[in-house]
């Protein structure tokens, strides 16, 4: 880290709240000497967790007390209208007001998106923000969006997602010209619904985007593109199915290696390979989805994230701060929209 970064942590969000967020925050502070955190939530609970870790007087921690929590099953409208002193909302306001450079929350996704749009607002030229995250591939990882913010998308929204995903891949991964593909039911041009076909036409006419065409579902993990674009309904279904497959494979491996004494001996021999495999597919390291399209940095951690997984979400926020992702998306969109208007 080369400069001071201040993050607002929604300590009350997620399935576990302070028992997971506070230890994760302290781990991140240990790793990043220039990191400062504003812990947002119930002060008594936060202090209790800090004292348990002997960190109640940590020099790089501030506490912002709040009196409300957005529950995981609260409707976005409830979070917006009735929970103006929630940890989620106050953390977002700290970003809006310039007190923090990014917000990290494991809270209710729908509420976070709605409150973030209201508090932080969207970038000029963006119709809808999207949820963007990394997924593992055979050759490394790709960025996929949208993962659930928009269940129905017009072609223009998919086009904007492609632009934003391309900027994220360039900024965070250092790729000079990341490949972008639309997720479809086939690779042929005649396949897909009207929205996907129209988005493909828009991307084909945009030299600033390295558009490579359609990919099918198996192409995501084969690493056929650096950025995969789809609507939120499809993206969320793909994400949940992928998480389910990883859990199933891990459970099947455990069951087989415990089946008898011979299998247990094989497991001992194969342990280094199994550990390497687990490390590559471990969902913790991919925790931390970016709500791209907002005029500020908001990172969504998985609601059921462990302490280790939340650390990865904090690290994702640090990266976006360093690379100033929202400003780069804004500049890229402005440039492309001007080029389209002049064409």
UniProtKB/TrEMBL annotation:
The keyword Transport is assigned to this record: no
BP GO terms, sorted: fatty acid biosynthetic process; phospholipid biosynthetic process
Reaction equations catalysed: a fatty acyl-[ACP] + phosphate = an acyl phosphate + holo-[ACP]
Domain of life: Bacteria
Broadest EC class assigned to this enzyme: transferase
An example molecular function term from Gene Ontology annotations: phosphate:acyl-[acyl carrier protein] acyltransferase activity
Cell location: Cytoplasm
Signal peptide positions on this chain: none
This enzyme's EC code(s): 2.3.1.274
Any one cellular-component term (Gene Ontology): cytoplasm
Pathway: Lipid metabolism; phospholipid metabolism
The entry's keywords: Acyltransferase, Cytoplasm, Lipid biosynthesis, Lipid metabolism, Phospholipid biosynthesis, Phospholipid metabolism, Transferase
Classification via Pfam families: FA_synthesis
InterPro entries to which the protein is assigned, alphabetical: FA_synthesis, Phospholipid_synth_PlsX-like
Physiological role: Catalyzes the reversible formation of acyl-phosphate (acyl-PO(4)) from acyl-[acyl-carrier-protein] (acyl-ACP). This enzyme utilizes acyl-ACP as fatty acyl donor, but not acyl-CoA.
Subunit comment: Homodimer. Probably interacts with PlsY.
UniProt-listed PANTHER family: FATTY ACID/PHOSPHOLIPID SYNTHESIS PROTEIN PLSX, PHOSPHATE ACYLTRANSFERASE
Stated family: Belongs to the PlsX family.
Entry protein name: Phosphate acyltransferase
Source species taxonomy: Bacteria, Pseudomonadati, Pseudomonadota, Gammaproteobacteria, Pseudomonadales
Gene: plsX
